[in-house]
Amino acid sequence: MDEQISGGADQGPEVTEPRLAVVAATAGDIPVLRVSGDLDLTTVPVLMDAVNASVRAHGRRRIVLDCADLEFCDSSGLNCFLQLHQGTGPVEGVVLAQVGATVRRLLDITGVDAALTVVPTVETAVARLRT
Fold first, then answer.
1. Which residues are CB-neighbours of 21 under 8 A, at least 6 positions away?
2. Which terminus has fewer CB within 10 Å in the chain: N or C?
3. Nearest to 81 by CA among 123, 56, 122, 110
4. 27-79: per-residue pLDDT in tens?
5. pTM for this structure?
6. Facing residues of 36 across strands?
7. Strand 20-27 to 15-17 pairing
8. 3-state helix, strand, coil in the chain (%, to 5)
9. 62-73 vs 30-39, strand pairing mode
């Protein structure tokens, strides 16, 4: 896929909390939120603020979460992923991409991976949302 992810001021603000950063970008017309740090009870609102900002900025209700730099996730983060995937929040669906080994193990152990759409690359996630 020759499409590049672009970021910048026109893509929306970077939302941060000392332990979590979410940077908004796009792959064509698909919003991609790059999530890094720890996703837990205190930082889930940071992710949700970024999701809401993305929906307002792009009008797209399906997004990609690039989790390559997500180092930790607890049950609050898993619940957030499930709510986004099921469309019970501000989006109609989410695809998780590039999930690292630590978070992937949590998804596997809890069985949450069976309920979510988890793919190896952002490009695959974008293609999935275009179909």
1. 14, 15, 34, 35, 36, 37
2. C
3. 110
4. 988 999 999 999 999 999 999 999 999 988 888 788 999 999 999 999 999 99
5. 0.85
6. 21, 69
7. antiparallel
8. 40, 35, 25
9. parallel
The residues near 114 (Cβ < 8 Å, ≥ 6 apart) are none
Cβ proximity of 33 and 22 under 8 Å: yes
Query: Tokens representing 101?
Result: 């080994």
Amino acid at position 87, single letter: G
DSSP notation for 101-126: HHHHHHHHHHTGGGTSEEES-HHHHH
Tokens linked to 130: 């275009």
